[in-house]
Amino acid sequence: MIEQRIRDISGIKYYAASHPRVRKYYRQGNRPREFGSKVWATTLVVLERLSQEEKNFSNLKVLEIGCGWGLLGIFLAKKFSCRVTASDLDKNVLPLVEMQAKINNVHIETKVSSFNELSTRYLTNFDLVIGSEICYSDEVAEDLRKLIERCLAAKVGKIILADPGRPDFKELMLKLTTSYKVQVEILPGSANGKKTYLLSIEQNLQEQELYEEKKD
Ligand SMILES: C[S@@+](CC[C@H](N)C(=O)[O-])C[C@H]1O[C@@H](n2cnc3c(N)ncnc32)[C@H](O)[C@@H]1O
User: Whose CA is nearest to atom 10 of ligand 1?
Assistant: First the structure.
């Protein structure tokens, strides 16, 4: 019965929110504050999509932002041997990341941090910054826009954000397309009729653009 509360997706395992270990952790007064009390559905869609990749992500240094339970990072550590740091504003989610990492036999570093606290200098440590379902107000969208600027200044190779198409995320996508070469892949959503937006910004495409501008 308890085993049934451990789920499998794309080659990794995760505890359901109803698993006794998770419930015990919550009863001890550690309930996440900012929507981090479960794995969000978009993340499961993104995991399925990333599992189709062959080696694009191998051995990268990855920062997962707004990680919640950290499944994207755990997947990248497991399938692509990435070195992963999972970060979130809410310190209560990070022991859950460690719990989930343990049943997958991977090690994940954790860091308490808001998007605004991730400095350009710190971001130079990473090849990939990734986050899913983290944009749900115009303030947060603006924080993410500035974070993307810092990532590019820090020469982070790739930034990936996923969202089920909330209005604030769509506005962010529009703003980003005016400044950067942005790729958006639209995947089937987690519920009928919904979509998952997978936005990526690659450092080398921005540099190519600058090079072409200088040539003209
Ligand atoms: C909807 S949950 C998504 C969690 C996880 N990415 C997933 O898809 O399962 C949003 C997460 O973002 C975190 N968060 C919200 N605002 C944040 C901020 N300004 N800086 C860092 N993390 C933030 C929350 O604590 C929460 O864990």
Answer: 134
Residue whose Cα lies nearest atom 26 of ligand 1: it is: 36
Burial class (CB in 10 A: 0-12, 13-18, 19+), 28: exposed
> Where does 3-215 sit in CATH, by number?
3.40.50.150
The tokens describing 153, both together, are 């200044």
Return the number of other C-beta atoms located less than 10 Å from residue 109's C-beta: 15
Which residues touch 64 (CB under 8 Å, ≥6 apart)? 70, 72, 73, 84, 85, 86, 87, 129, 130, 131
Distance between CA atoms of residues 129 and 149, nearest Å: 12
Tell me the pLDDT tens digit for each residue of 158-177. 999 999 999 999 999 999 99
pTM reported for the whole predicted model: 0.94
Give me the helices (H) in the chain, please: 20-25, 41-50, 71-80, 94-103, 120-123, 138-153, 167-179, 203-215
> From CA 208, how far away is CA 116, in angstroms rounded?
28
Q: How far is the CA of 33 from the centre of ligand 1 (A)?
A: 10
Structure tokens at 214: 């200088």
Q: So where are the chain's domains?
A: 3-215
* Å from CA of 209 to ligand 1 middle: 32
Of 175, 180, 172, 173, nearest to 210 by C-alpha is 180
Q: At what angle do helices 71-80 and 41-50 cross, to 10 degrees?
A: 10
How far apart, in whole angstroms, are the C-alpha atoms of residue 194 and residue 170?
Answer: 14
